[in-house]
From TrEMBL:
Rad50/SbcC-type AAA domain mapped to chain residues: 5-218
Organism: Mammaliicoccus vitulinus
Ranges in a coiled coil: 249-371, 440-487, 556-695, 735-805
GO molecular function: ATP binding; ATP hydrolysis activity; endonuclease activity; exonuclease activity
Family note: Belongs to the SMC family. SbcC subfamily.
Xref: Pfam families: AAA_23, SbcC_Walker_B
Keyword list, A-Z: ATP-binding, Coiled coil, DNA recombination, DNA replication, Endonuclease, Exonuclease, Hydrolase, Nuclease, Nucleotide-binding
Subunit structure, interactors included: Heterodimer of SbcC and SbcD.
Protein name listed in UniProt: Nuclease SbcCD subunit C
Keyword match Coiled coil: yes
GO BP of this protein: DNA recombination; DNA replication; double-strand break repair
């Protein structure tokens, strides 16, 4: 985040002040200096308040931000413009205050804008959404902002001395490490899912076993009833399902083969009878068809003769079509010739008409030339016509305005003298108002201290009540603890789950009659029905009692911690007493001072009002004098323009001249347009005449050529028609139309010949096949075949059902084996997952979760960068180190200091004030460096430091300044508030906060 500008209205000592940080380069070190109480820290307060609605330090309240000299009707407002990642943002926020005449305070207003295409666009305008928007944009809250970007006066060491929990909150925001916590939670959830998955595998095995087909076999029915968690026993017997199913399948296949052979023999006999019967039927059909074809044979022969004649006439088709086309072309040319003659006559009439109009138009040419000469001579007047029209119109008005302004000036001079007399009569002492205001501020500070003590007194009473409540709860928990411990005195049951696994393993590896591997005696029977369920229930009850006892112990520990904390807080508040009477007295004194200050304020405001009115009148008189000079010059210009216009145009009025010029220009335009149009039309008519004459000659030539071609074609057709005995063109046309049917006639004849030959051949072939044979009766054979097929269908159906059951059993067996493999694989990986989840959640020798381990890595990196500056500032004596000792709760992020002189590590609070400032400054720089290197969520482009340099000696001050110079060289803006005079000579850019009475202003200066 880099500040660009800051506007403050009625904010602390600033009435309407703007600080433009654009005067600073992007990487520059600058000093903020001024007198005590001038408002230097208020600049930091304004930036922090704009972003978070809080001040830069926890000790200052929001109500302290409003100026005591603010206009009661106007709000206290801050406008802060800043830049993040090259994007510009603007925040406007007001302070809650009580407006004059109201009892309740006005609500604060906050608006956030973003610059898009050089324009501000509103992003949010409600308080909650704006606060969330800014917090998400900056990736930090106000507490983290104070510890990272601003080192406030008196609070600069907070991040240095904060505990692991507070540092964790800041570091996880800076480096976006909460994703590691999500990974831990996800792993724990996956572990629970894995355990549930194994149980579901047991249920799947039971379900698959219940779906297995037992083929009505008693042994298979017994195996089917085994529970899923005894999957090892199931796996030893699962192949028996396949064996029994295959035996039954073998018997069914033999029955099917026997019946298929019988069906095949009957089917063969039936097919032979069926083929002979079909031959008889086909022979009868073909003989009837051959008889019908012989009846159509005479018609086909006539068609052959006609087809031969059409082919001889076909040669005249082309010449006949040519004759038809030439006659149509001749008719078209005759029509074109007539139309061209008509167009030539029309063109001649139009040309005569245009020539007559052109002659008549030339008669007005003398008058038109006079118009053209006048327009040309007055062209320069027309180009500036608005100027002369303005002079003619405004000259009287400007003279009248000059007279009115003279009267107004005389009146203002009299009013000015009256206000000056009133101002001299006012008596007001600014120092008395300031003294009473300071007294009021002192009383307010005293009142705040008293209110804090009264609040602590109420906290003391609440703590006493909590102490009594915690003691009572502890007595109850002691009784519960004794009750649960009594229950646990009963002898504990052994681990039933482990025993169950061992029993099952032994049962799988021993047989009846063997020696027992445990006691050595002979095994007479193997009992698989041991009552594990009752033992599980006892074990569950025992675990429930232990968990309840642990819960009570945890509650007792919690209440003991709370009781201890409450006692510590009560010890701190032991000397606090009730101060309500002092609060009432102080409040009464403040109210009295408010009334007195209000009287001074009213006098001051009245005096300021008179001064403002005098200033406004004097300003108005100056403006009137300037305006009178302008009017005088304007009158001279207007008068000269009017005289020149009359001389050039010989017209007294501009409107009359403009009207006359427009009439002349219109007449010239009409004349020129009409003359041009007539000339263009005459030229076009002459051009059209030539074109029409050329087209007529072309048409006449084409007409003669077509007539000659028609004569030659008619002679050829007459000779051919005489040769083929055709008497007319109508007869020829009819014959030529039949030529299109030649292909159809040929296809019809070919089809007849082909069909006749085929049918005749089939009749001869079938006659040979059925010779000396009788037609068989296939009905009896068909009944025998259907009965045999029905029997085979029943056998096949039974066989398919049996095969389906065998296949389903194989699928279930394969599925059971797959589930067993998953169980054994999951059981093997489960131990690894539990161990990994335990380690990642902090249950390890280092007591570090995965996220805390990552944060420690970043903290070590930050300390390495910080120590480069800290060692230099302390002449290689001090070094910041991370505390290695483990403690309850979150640990590993506390910081200690290693003293190289004593070769020992000590607590960070043992440093002196100056050394603590050096350590805090080094840590802030190191933090900024690491965040920039790691490209974290936050962009630290600025750093602001409020005081702390006064605790350093001259040599250490030089070292600290060199360090800050190196920081600003790396591309960051560094601002410092300090009273140390040496800084003014060392830092080239200074933001001066100038105090003038009760008000302050700012300005930049450069050494």
């Amino acid at each position: 985040m880099r500040p660009l500008s800051l506007n403050m209205q009625y904010f602390g000592p600033f009435i309407d002040e703007k600080v433009d940080f654009r005067h600073l380069s992007k990487s520059q070190l600058f000093l903020i200096c001024g007198k005590t109480g001038s408002g230097k820290t208020m600049i930091f307060d304004a930036m922090v308040y704009a972003l978070f609605g809080k001040t830069s330090t926890e000790s200052r309240e929001e109500v302290d931000l409003r100026s005591h000299f603010a206009d009661p009707k106007l709000p206290t407002e801050v406008q802060f413009e800043f830049e993040i990642k090259g994007e510009s943002y603007l925040v406007t926020r007001t302070v809650k205050y009580i407006k004059e005449g109201n009892k309740n305070p006005t609500n604060a207003i906050v608006e956030v804008y973003k610059k898009v295409n050089d324009k501000w666009e509103l992003e949010t305008k409600s308080i909650n959404t704006s606060n969330d928007y800014l917090k998400q944009l900056l990736h930090m809250n106000v507490k983290q902002f104070r510890q990272i970007l601003i080192l406030p006066q008196g609070e600069f060491k907070q991040f240095l001395v904060s505990n692991s929990t507070d540092k964790r909150s800041i570091l996880r925001t800076l480096f976006d490490s909460d994703r590691f916590e999500e990974l831990q939670e996800q792993l724990e959830s996956e572990m629970k899912k894995e355990l549930a998955l194994i149980e579901s595998h047991y249920q799947k095995i039971s379900q698959y076993m219940s779906d297995m087909h037992d083929f009505e076999d008693e042994q298979l029915k017994d195996i089917k009833a085994i529970e899923g968690y005894r999957y090892q026993t199931i796996m030893l017997s699962i192949d028996l399902y396949d064996k029994v199913g295959n035996e039954k399948l073998k018997v069914s296949l033999a029955e099917k083969e026997k019946q298929e052979k019988q069906v095949s023999e009957i089917e063969k006999a039936f097919e032979n009878e069926k083929t002979l019967n079909e031959n008889f039927n086909t022979l009868y059909e073909k003989e009837a068809l051959l008889k019908a074809l012989r009846k159509d044979e005479a018609e086909i022969n006539d068609l052959r003769k006609h087809l031969k004649y059409l082919k001889t006439v076909q040669s005249m088709t082309y010449q006949y079509n040519q004759l038809t086309d030439k006659e149509q072309a001749l008719n078209l040319e005759i029509k074109n010739e007539e139309e061209l003659q008509q167009s030539i006559e029309r063109n001649k009439l139009k040309l005569n008409e245009l020539t007559e109009r052109l002659s008549k138009l030339n008669e007005d040419s003398v008058k038109i030339e006079q118009y053209r000469q006048f327009v040309q001579n007055t062209k320069h007047i027309k180009m500036s016509l608005n100027k002369y029209l303005e002079a003619e119109t405004k000259l009287p008005k400007v003279i009248e305005e000059q007279q009115a302004l003279n009267k107004e000036t005389d009146k203002d001079k009299q009013e000015l003298q009256t206000f000056k007399n009133k101002l001299n009569a006012i008596s007001y002492d600014e120092s008395e108002e300031q003294n009473k205001t300071k007294h009021q501020e002192t009383l307010k500070l005293n009142l705040q201290d008293l209110q804090t003590k009264q609040k602590q007194y109420h906290e003391k009473l609440e703590l006493l009540e909590k102490q009594q409540s915690y003691t009572s709860e502890l007595v109850k928990l002691e009784k519960e603890k004794a009750h649960f411990e009594e229950k646990l005195k009963v002898k504990r049951q052994f681990d039933i789950l482990s025993v169950e696994d061992e029993i099952l393993k032994i049962q799988q590896h021993v047989h009846q009659g063997d020696d027992c591997p445990i006691c050595g005696s002979m095994i007479e029977t193997i009992n698989g029905d041991y009552d594990f369920e009752s033992l599980r229930k006892e074990k569950a009850q025992q675990l429930e009692v232990e968990q309840s006892l642990q819960g009570v112990i945890y509650k007792m520990t919690t209440y003991n911690e709370r009781l201890k904390l409450t006692k510590e807080q009560l010890d701190k508040l032991m000397d606090i007493s009730d101060v309500q009477t002092e609060i009432d007295n102080t409040t009464e004194q403040i109210n009295q001072l408010v009334n007195e200050i209000q009287l001074y304020r009213e006098r001051r405001q009245y005096k300021q009002s008179l001064q403002n009115q005098i200033h406004d009148i004097e300003k108005g008189l100056t403006q009137n004098e300037l305006q009178l000079n302008d009017l005088k010059n304007q009158i001279t210009i207007y008068e000269n323009d009017v005289i020149y216009f009359k001389q050039e145009t010989k017209f007294d009025e501009v409107v009359q001249f403009e009207k006359q010029v427009q009439q002349y220009e219109k007449a010239l335009t009409v004349y020129d347009d009409e003359l041009n149009q007539l000339n263009v039309q005459v030229d076009k008519c002459k051009e059209d005449k030539q074109g029409l004459q050329m087209k007529a000659a072309t048409v006449k030539e084409r007409k003669s050529m077509i007539e000659e071609q028609i004569k030659l074609t008619r002679d050829y057709l007459s000779r051919e028609m005489e040769q083929h005995q055709i008497t007319s063109y109508e007869q020829l046309d009819e014959l030529l139309q039949q030529i299109n049917d030649i292909d159809e006639h040929e296809e019809k004849i070919n089809q007849f010949d082909k069909k006749y030959i085929e049918v005749e051949a089939v009749v001869k072939e079938l006659g040979k096949k059925v010779k000396d044979k009788e037609r068989p009766d296939t009905l009896k054979t068909e009944h025998l075949l259907n009965d045999a097929k029905e029997t085979l269908s029943v056998i096949v159906k039974q066989l398919n059902q049996l095969q389906l059951k065998i296949d389903q059993n194989k699928q279930k067996s394969t599925a059971i084996k797959g589930v067993v493999d998953k169980i054994e694989h999951d059981l093997q990986e489960q131990a690894e997952m539990i161990e990994l989840s335990r380690i990642m959640n902090g249950k390890n020798s280092q007591k570090l979760s995965l996220e805390n381990y990552v944060l420690i890595y970043y903290l070590n990196h930050i300390l390495d960068n910080a120590n480069r500056h800290f060692l230099r500032m302390t002449n290689n004596r001090y070094q910041l180190v991370r505390k290695k000792e483990k403690s309850q709760g979150l640990s590993g992020l506390e910081i200690e200091v290693f003293d190289r002189f004593s070769n020992r590590t000590r607590h960070i609070t043992s440093l002196s004030g100056g050394e603590t400032f050096q350590a805090s400054l080094s840590l802030a720089i190191g933090l900024s460096d690491v965040v920039q290197q790691e490209a974290g969520a936050i962009h630290l482009e600025s750093m602001f430091i409020d005081e702390g340099f006064g605790t350093l000696d001259s040599e250490t001050l030089e070292t600290a300044l060199d360090t800050l110079v190196n920081v600003q060289i790396s591309g960051r803006l560094v601002g410092i508030i300090s009273h140390v005079s040496e800084l003014k000579t060392r830092i080239p850019t200074i933001l001066n906060v100038n105090k003038n009475g009760f008000l302050s202003t700012t300005s930049f200066s450069y050494n």
